[in-house]
Every structure is written in structure tokens, then in C-alpha cells.
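If you are new to this repository, start here. Below is one unmodified record pulled from the training split, so you can see the exact layout before writing a loader.
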Amino acid sequence: MAEFLDMPGFLIRRAHQTATALFADYMAQANLPLTPFQFAALSAIAAHPGLDQASVATMADCDRATMGGVLDRLAERGLILRQTSPKDRRAKVLDLTPEGAALLEQATPIAAKVQHQLTAGLHTDERQQLAVLLEKIVQQRPA
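And here is the target side for that same chain:
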């Protein structure tokens, strides 16, 4: 009857809901106004200063329109700078502002706590196995 409750897609959706809720709770407790997509964008830009908007969207596995809105909000808050690319005048490149770097520095250990809490019921080898299996699922998705 309730066979869907054991389906991997359903369980992945529920795990995603749990991860998103934990992230929101932990960030709220720390008084950090940051969403998972914003965290991903800031992290990508920090790792690759001067990255273009399309590459940030690709790294965060987010469509360009959604990521454009995320980046708009980060820019409005003074957390990132958008500049015209010196290589391609049609493209915008991104850098963190000092405020963006400070927020990311505060948020990174909290995001790590979220990951630990999310997998608290798993042994170390199970955590690694889960990551490997989820990566396999992600990699088989058609482009």
C-alpha cells in the first residue's frame, strides 16, 4: 500500500527537506541570514574569485535564473561584487566583499555542524558510503 515510502526518490526528498530545515535552524540560531543556495554561491566565489555567474550556477547545480536571483540578493546586501569580465564584456565576474567573506567565515563551521547532525546516526564508514552512493546518483543524471 504505502510502497512509495520506501522508494529512494521519496527518501531522498525527505532527506533534502531535513537538511534544508537543519540548515535554516542552525543559521537562525547563529543569527546568520543565509540560505543553502546563498551559502553555496558564497563558497563557490570564495574558492574561485572572479568566477562568472554561469559557473557559480553550475557549481551549485542550480539553474541560471534562480542563481541570478540569489546573486542579486547577495549583491544588494553588499556581500558580493559584480564586475564586467575583462575577457568577455557580456559576462559578469564575481568576488566576495569583506562583509561576504566574514559572513562565509562565520557560516562555514555552522554548515559543517549541519552536515554532522544530518548524518549523526551513521558510522564514519556509512557517512562515506552515503556520499559515494549519492554522488553516483547525481553523476548518472542526464545533462
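Two things worth knowing about this chain: The two ends are 34 Å apart (CA to CA). The mean pLDDT is 92.
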